Amino acid sequence: TARPLKKKKLNQVNQLPNSNKHLGIFDDGHGSLDREVCRRHELYVSFRDLGWLDSVIAPQGYSAYYCAGECIYPLNSCMNSTNHATMQALVHLMKPDIVPKVCCVPTKLSAISLLYYDRNNNVILRRERNMVVQACGCH
Amino acid sequence: GSSHLPRSPHVFPQHRLGVREPRDMQREIREVLGLPGRPRSRAPLATAQQPASAPLFMLNLYHAMTDDSGNGPPQPHLHRADLIMSFVNIVEHDRTLGYQEPHWKEFHFDLTQIPAGEAVTAAEFRIYKEPSTHPPNTTLHISMFEVVQERSNRESDLFFLDLQTLRSGDEGWLVLDITAASDRWLLNHNKDLGLRLYVETEDGHSLDPGLAGLLGQTAPRSRQPFMVGFFKASQSPVRAPR
Fold first, then answer.
1. What are the chain B neighbours of A129 within 8 Å (beta carbons)?
2. SS3 per-residue string spanning A35-91
């Protein structure tokens, strides 16, 4: 009697409402077995919140996006989707028959410029090209 | 339309990304984006002492760099640089009135903060000039040299950098090109950069830079002299000699 219940539960999982229409080829991999689907989040990195405004002149903060949820190949918890995608693309090249092609590839990156004081009160303007994730392959 | 791909669940350890405190995630994103670590608190300078000329100039550069419309005033050197550093002078020597000629003004900059591996694409020394009436309405030649070697018993070794000609009544920011000194300062990272400024009249007489209207460290905060370096990350930080 217990077994039929389990089978029913699996079906139930597959029928989860798909909260993100644009899932990648991991469609079922993302949402199987009670796992939270990988979804895109917007995060505003506020230099004010970080208490940096005594040395950061501009900007006040910047918007970045990241994936959060259950990805099938999360290499460790310190990576956001950008690094995750880059690493998986490399592994796919090495083991194409085992590791599927990556879907979380950043599709749009933009530069960020930061103006801040260094320890000697010199003012520094730094431009980081291709640094802020604007969109990734998951979505 | 997704196809079922064979999955090898044990290729990588299964970790949950999970949902974090925004501050943790901000720090994580900052580290991944390569933004500098949490800036250390700056050496306390009373606001009244803090030069404002360099920050104001750099803020204009920041707006020009982030302005995609392209409507702003053109900023030479900006488009090729990834890192722009401004330095305020730490020491200022004057050999002016009361000394025998030639009169000069000397500025020293601490450049130890320049990150390794950066190639200089351009460097400028900026000093504000007020209108001067002695002598009135005459042509002045402003020349800038790098102090290569200071000597206690005789004149220092100097290296010519730039010459600008203007009128004694002119006012505004004077920009002197000091890019030629960059090779040396990158090779001697720990040595201060010394810049010396001379003013001569049309008939070759040396003039006190202060009398010519050139402002030094005692100027109002928004008009104090500073230098700016434009850098680009490169494997060979030293420019090929021309």
1. 82
2. CCCCEEEEEEEECCCCCCCCCEEECCEEEEEEEECCCCCCCCCCCCHHHHHHHHHHH
List of chain A residues whose C-beta atoms are within 8 Å of the C-beta of residue B28: 78, 80
The pLDDT tens digits of the residues spanning B93-132 come to 777 656 677 788 999 988 888 877 788 899 999 999 999 8
To the nearest whole Å, the CA of A69 is away from the closest chain B CA by 6
ipTM of the complex: 0.74
Contact state of B38 with A80 under an 8 Å Cβ cutoff: no
**B chain contacts of residue A119, beta-carbon cutoff 8 Å:** 39-40, 42-43, 113
Per the DSSP assignment, residues forming a β-bridge with A59 are none
The C-alpha atoms of residue B10 and residue B237 are separated, in whole angstroms, by 46
Given an 8 Å threshold on Cβ–Cβ distance, is B113 in contact with A57?
no
The number of CA neighbours under 13 Å toward the Cβ of A130 is 5
Which residue carries 């798909």 as its tokens? A18
CA distance linking residue A91 with residue A104, whole number of Å: 14
pLDDT tens across A41-79, in order?
677 777 777 777 777 888 888 877 666 666 555 545 445
**Å between A134 CA and nearest CA of chain B:** 12
Closest chain B C-alpha to A101 CA, distance in angstroms: 10
Rounded distance, CA B171 to CA B131, Å?
5
Spatial CA neighbour of B141 closest among B95, B201, B94, B101: B201
Closest CA to A32 of B18, B7, B19, B1: B7
pLDDT under 70: residue ranges of chain B? 1-51, 96-99, 189, 234-242
Q: Cis (ω within 30 of 0) for the bond into A59?
A: yes
The beta-carbon neighbor of B2 closest among A28, A99, A123 is A28
CA A30/CA B46 separation, integer angstroms: 55
CA–CA separation, A35 vs A16, rounded Å? 10
- Cα-trace Rg, chain B: 24
Distances (CA, A) of A58 to A61, A127, B33, B68: 8, 12, 17, 16
